[in-house]
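Could you help me review a protein record that somebody else here produced? Here is the record exactly as it was handed to me:
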Amino acid sequence: MRTRASVVTALGAGFTIEELEVDEPIGREVLIEVKASGLCHSDLHAATTGLGVPFPAVLGHEVAGIVLAVGPETTGIVPGQHVVASLVQFCGECAACRTDRTFQCTDPAATVRRPDQPPRLRRPDGTAVVSAFGTGGFAGLTLAHENQVVPVPDDLPFPVAAILGCATITGAGAAIHSADVRVGDSVAVIGLGGVGLNVISGARLAGATTIVAIDAQEEKLALARRFGATHVVHADGEQDVVAAVHQLTGGGVDHAFEVIGLAATTQDAIRMTRVGGDTNLIGIHRPGSTIAVDPGDLLISQRTIRGIYMGSSNIKADIPRYARLYQQGRLNLDDLIAREIALDDVADAYEELRTGTTARSVITDFAAR
């Protein structure tokens, strides 16, 4: 089978459209006709600064579509189902997986093909192309291991479903699972992209009564209120955002979330956390980045600094749960989608994402122009 795909040929080389061959599903694989694929900032990081993805590769890890076929060992996924594919790769057999910590799986490579097996994707000349993160969603067709595939209701819009696979489980999960936000807690969120806005949603669902949204873009501050922010702070460089948060909360927040991946905003997140509170790091920093932490200050302030991966989520349980919350009108996902684009527009859409003016663009048109 052939499919159009947006391919990154080398680090920093950008996105180019190619025709690729897609192999038949084997083992526990699922062949998906992709109906929607979200543009996450993590894929831009992988394409420009490197996250260990070998090239050439098809990126894209917020995927929604329809199952076309399954491998002979697949159980629980059947052709015709509407599904979400997520980048959370888990073997299902290690100690972490067996204790419901699939996000900490010690053998994620169990979800991809072995070197002695044919590649899932290849060029017409036989050159292997990596399906990045096991999803390879910037294509009209993709193969993924069934552990990464979750059925969703047929009436769930595909663009909304796609966002569940990363932005929602990462952001909402960070508040609900990782930080364990409780009723009455105070929260600050630095960075209001798709993940940051979902942190706000998760904090609201968990019962936080004070939710401070912080960003340099006025448009995103206005958007944050629609997701449940009770206060906004404009990080325009003209005010001390840490002082502003302390003033709003009477001494700092219970939980601060950094969703950008910069040393300066990470330091701000630590400083705006109250005594005994926690700072939660979600944003991806450039390789080799460091932050300075004073152990004595941590000791006296009793603060916790926590790194979060994928919102500590179990995708098989959490994606259907968030889908139901959306259908009940309790989880805002529609406002996350800035626009729907064609596969050919990926490069331009990522250029817009660099400026920070959009929340999420979602590919919904994979046809040739």
Q: What stands out?
A: The mean pLDDT is 95.
